[in-house]
Amino acid sequence: MIKYWIEVSDELNRILTDNAKAKNLTIEQLIAEVLSRFTISAHILDSEDTQKGYAECGDINLDWANL
Description:
The chain is mainly α. The protein contains 3 helices and no strands. It has helices at 10-22, 27-38, 47-65. Helix 1 packs across helix 2 (27-38).
């Protein structure tokens, strides 16, 4: 496992904290979930993956909108 050190603004930290609590996750778990959903290799991009990605992003947006 590789670990990263990131710095975020106070506002982003508040958002991450609130969303992690709402999903019963640690902030690290939430960040890993977001990265796994939004990070893809550009060389494997195809229409099926793009469609799936849009659907997953929509699901995340709805989850966050309902907090």
